[in-house]
Amino acid sequence: MANIVVLGGNFAGLTTALEARRRLGNTYDRIIVISRSEDFLFVPSLIWVPFGLRDISQISLPLKPIFDNHDIEFIHAEATKVNIDSQVVSSTAGEFPYDYLVVATGPKLDWSVPGTGPHGYTSCVCTPPDALAMREDINKLLDSPGPVVVGAAPRAGCMGAAYEFLLNLEHFLRKHDLRKKTPITWVTPEPFLGHFGIGGMRTGEPMIRQMFEHLDIKWITNSEIVSAGSNTINLGDNTELEASFSMIMPAFIGQDVVTNSTGLGTAAGFIPVNGAYQHQRYSNIFAAGVAVDVPSPFQTKVPIGVPKTGFPADVAGKTAAYNIARLIENRKQLRQRPFGRIPGLCVMDAGSKEVIMISNHLLRPREFSLLLPNPFYDGGKRLFEKYFLWKTAHGYSFLP
Ligand SMILES: Cc1cc2nc3c(=O)[nH]c(=O)nc-3n(C[C@H](O)[C@H](O)[C@H](O)COP(=O)(O)OP(=O)(O)OC[C@H]3O[C@@H](n4cnc5c(N)ncnc54)[C@H](O)[C@@H]3O)c2cc1C
């Protein structure tokens, strides 16, 4: 009988736990998920929360019933440390020995750029409390319109969400007939529009440039945000941008449980894995989702991160679960799905329009990549949200 402990219960952790149970069947193997959050959260829909288009309750599901239905123990707690020698996880709910460990704790937001973040002067869309708090900032902007800055800090790796937020905000201000009073500037560490931390996609840059020109959005690429003040965003080249409202996507780093655990992660708190999502040094430790270390292959003027989005989190979770089941069955050959070779598939909501990103591999070399307006129906992301919540509520982790 093996003890499998999964840290984190959202995209990657939930998929790994459910898939491990499916692979192992109703054996005596114990699967325990420790998660700081009681609920599954469909994070991609957070971009709609500031505009009142979604409430948090519409995009979350309680985790316990899902796990109960699949013979998985759920512990609502924060994992605080992993002792690799004794194979024990410490948490706010006690200690949990493991035979196999999966780290799926997602990102911690790095607010080290002075003045950025909800405790500074810029808004944030990455967590439920921050997305809800932004409603008030947006109301203030409606009452007293002025310049808007949206963008990303150096090393940010979630550029797609920042673009989506930008275009939703533009659409929202246009609907309120305020665009002439709210000049918008996009500041990005990307070397060109539509780089997204993956080197761009065919047709991407010209399409986004045209869209920005059409919507009258100014942009500054290669920009290094060095600080934010009460009404300014300051760049490394001494440019000072006036901002009545700003939303800056931070860089992601790993969670404290990783940095507090000797030997577990990199200095930034991510888990170094091989193509099987197995730790490079410890064969019984796996990682999935944002917790996986994916060094950026790009040498850019301002550093950028690689986007670790939902689809690769799902693939990594499934691969880790499959491989743990193989090891438990004493099989040696593990499935390999290296991050860069996973196909890219993403629907980006652009306010009144949708953009589809497709590539045969997330990172180069790629034979095929394309960014195009959705030719069918501009509610693809909304449909996907409904599908994903349905799939999650039923625990159908084997579905795509
Ligand atoms: C605003 C926004 C929009 C996005 N839009 C898209 C999109 O349109 N498409 C897309 O594919 N991707 C999108 N992403 C990225 C996507 O959300 C991530 O890829 C996905 O959430 C990664 O899943 P994960 O399980 O690794 O991390 P998370 O979803 O962050 O889950 C990590 C879980 O671990 C828990 N946890 C953390 N630390 C501990 C601890 N110490 N102990 C116990 N539990 C812990 C957390 O509470 C959380 O529940 C977006 C991201 C953001 C921020």
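^ flavin-adenine dinucleotide complex. The pocket of flavin-adenine dinucleotide is lined by residues 7-13, 34-37, 43-44, 46-47, 78-79, 104-107, 125-126, 158, 161, 255, 257, 289-291, 308-311, 313, 346 (CB under 6 Å). Residues 35 and 76 are 5 Å apart (CA to CA).
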